[in-house]
């Protein structure tokens, strides 16, 4: 009897590993191995034809921390994330609440909100390039009607990053709205009817019932928004190329520039490892703290 139980357990274990094997193989090929290879590359110096690369340990990381451009890029990305994440989520929630209400042309409104999301990154950047072009752009044309001077939105350090932030919010708010809209449609109508019977105001109903029920969706959106905040590169190629004076340069663009413009793969690998470490810390906080405080039912 005991032998039969052991055989059954082994069969279940083998069956479980077979179910996990496709995901494990894909993760090993496209996640674990590239991460380890990048970490190993970050521990060597940049090689040339005359001099082979040498093991330097953490010297590349020390160079990054001593580089003023690195800290400027980090500062830019922190500001970019601090503005785009909450503003995009707030606008997405407001749009979802309106698109979910009983209004006329509701389907048209939903389509209009979601349209920026389906546009390719390059197409969206070129569209906003038409808005920002000095003298000829839509923003300057509108400003000229009120006697305002022409502004080079993408050519000034004071406005370049903010111009990128506006494009990102416009692009991502509609995407996040879809998740909120789907979550709102799962809230039972009985809760709204009960709140109306009790004489609950719209604000109280939103704050005490709707927002807590949307917390799992909000958590999912926040995590995605954080990941998106460190992977923007398409818009920068078209709009600013990180300029002027590195004022709009973000982390992923800086990594690309190091690896493929300056051919400095070790420092690019080191910066990639730092980004992965930060994302791992965020994921750990999300799993052990925020996720346990989120109500799923």
Tell me the number of strands.
0
Assign the CATH topology: MetI-like fold
Structural class from helices and strands? mainly alpha
* Domain tally: 1
Question: From the coordinates shown, what is the CATH architecture?
Answer: Orthogonal Bundle
Question: Which ranges are low-confidence, i.e. pLDDT below 50, for 5 or more consecutive residues?
Answer: none
Distance between the termini: 42 Å
Q: Kindly state the percentage of residues in helix.
A: over 70%
CATH homologous superfamily identity? MetI-like
Structure overview:
The chain has 297 residues and is mostly helical. It has one domain (67-293): MetI-like (MetI-like fold, Orthogonal Bundle), CATH 1.10.3720.10. The protein has helices spanning 2-41, 59-65, 68-100, 106-118, 121-132, 138-145, 160-184, 189-197, 202-213, 215-228, 234-239, 251-261, 265-290. It is flat and about 75 Å long. The two termini are 42 Å apart. The model has no long low-confidence stretch (mean pLDDT 87).
């Amino acid at each position: 009897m005991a032998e039969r139980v052991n055989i059954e357990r082994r069969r279940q274990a083998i069956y479980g590993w077979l179910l996990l094997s496709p995901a494990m193989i894909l993760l090993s090929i496209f996640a674990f191995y590239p991460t380890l290879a990048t970490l190993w590359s970050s521990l060597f110096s940049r090689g040339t034809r005359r001099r082979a690369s040498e093991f330097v340990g953490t010297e590349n990381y020390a160079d990054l921390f001593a580089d003023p451009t690195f800290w400027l890029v980090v500062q830019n990305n922190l500001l970019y994330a601090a503005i785009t994440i909450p503003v995009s989520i707030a606008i997405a929630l407001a749009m979802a609440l309106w698109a979910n209400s009983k209004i006329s042309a509701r389907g048209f409104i939903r389509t209009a909100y979601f349209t920026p999301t389906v546009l390719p990154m390059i197409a969206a950047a070129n569209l906003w390039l038409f808005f920002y072009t000095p003298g000829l752009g839509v923003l300057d044309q509108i400003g000229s009607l009120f006697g305002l001077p022409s502004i080079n939105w993408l050519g000034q350090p004071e406005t370049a990053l903010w111009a990128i932030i506006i494009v990102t919010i416009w692009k991502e708010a509609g995407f996040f709205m879809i998740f909120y809209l789907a979550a709102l449609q799962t809230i039972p109508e009985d809760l709204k009817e009960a709140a109306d019977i009790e004489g609950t105001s719209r604000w109280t109903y939103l704050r005490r019932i709707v927002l807590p029920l949307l917390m799992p969706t909000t958590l999912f959106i926040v995590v995605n928004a954080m990941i998106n905040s460190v992977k923007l590169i398409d818009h920068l190629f078209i709009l600013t190329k990180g300029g002027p004076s590195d004022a709009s340069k973000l982390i992923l663009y800086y990594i690309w520039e190091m690896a493929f413009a300056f051919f400095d793969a070790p420092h690019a690998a080191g910066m990639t490892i730092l980004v992965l470490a930060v994302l791992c810390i965020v994921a750990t906080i999300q799993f052990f703290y925020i996720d346990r405080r989120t109500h799923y039912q």
